[in-house]
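Budget justification aside, the reviewers requested a transparent look at the raw inputs and outputs of the sequence design task funded under Objective 1. We therefore reproduce one unedited record. The lines immediately below are the structure tokens for a 245-residue chain.
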């Protein structure tokens, strides 16, 4: 079993020299607490992956969790796959995340085998895929490389397969962006974060996480070849899309 996650206090004290956010050992040690308290709707998105797994995964295919972190999405998918001979490929480029993912998977009794890969998702071969999860991962890929990545995922998917893309999104109107950002910050405050923590985290991540509008994501998925693209969930400035090949 994996160790109980620690409470996220990484930005609780003033940091005069903030560095860009990175998924290092410090972040990995508090990540489950961090994402639960920072991303509204996260638990819903993870839980609903089971619905997509039960409907879209086909016999003998592969399921990919790209940017798997500590395996929450991998486990949600694994526990609801109803077809035989399915392999899950879970990928993350941060070794501390992969090691915790390995421990979490080892304590789960679901039958589908999981291949763990510590690498850049842009280097991962995609083939025979019936379902791909890309949860809060594309936003860390450079803007000029996102379209090529999605096109490659599309090419590696089977007809009828699905891509789940979850992202922090930029709102189309300034007043809406301001409202949703304010509500998101209040969500964090109600989850115990101080204004100092909110401010410092925002500064550390603003050059690393580059959000786009929902329309940007939908149009890019359509250009990649997906015929059916829907925003199936949104909570404040976090949205999840499903694209069907």
């Amino acid at each position: 079993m994996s160790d109980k996650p620690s409470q996220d206090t990484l930005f609780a004290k003033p940091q005069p020299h903030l560095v860009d956010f990175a998924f290092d050992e410090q972040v990995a040690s508090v990540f489950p607490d961090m994402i639960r308290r920072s991303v509204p709707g996260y638990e819903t998105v993870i839980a609903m992956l089971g619905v997509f797994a039960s409907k879209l995964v086909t016999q003998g295919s592969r399921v990919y969790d790209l940017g798997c972190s500590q395996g929450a999405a991998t486990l949600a998918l694994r526990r609801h796959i109803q077809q035989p001979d399915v392999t899950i490929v879970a990928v993350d480029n941060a070794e501390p995340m992969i090691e915790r993912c390995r421990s979490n998977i080892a304590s789960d009794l679901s039958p589908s085998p999981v291949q763990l890969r510590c690498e850049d998702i842009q280097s991962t071969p995609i083939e025979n895929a019936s379902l791909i999860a890309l949860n809060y991962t594309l936003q860390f890929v450079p803007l000029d490389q996102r379209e090529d990545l999605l096109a490659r995922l599309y090419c590696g998917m089977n007809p009828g397969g699905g891509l789940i893309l979850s992202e922090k999104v930029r709102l189309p109107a300034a007043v809406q962006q301001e409202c949703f950002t304010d509500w998101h910050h209040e969500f964090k405050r109600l989850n115990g974060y101080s204004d100092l923590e909110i401010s410092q985290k925002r500064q550390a991540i603003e050059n690393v996480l580059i959000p786009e509008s929902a329309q940007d994501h939908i149009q890019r998925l359509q250009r990649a070849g997906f015929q059916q693209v829907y925003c199936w969930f949104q909570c404040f400035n976090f949205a999840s899309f499903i694209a069907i090949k």
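The longest strand covers residues 157-170. Residues 1-245 form a domain with the Rossmann fold fold (CATH 3.40.50.150). Computational costs for records of this kind are itemized in the attached budget.
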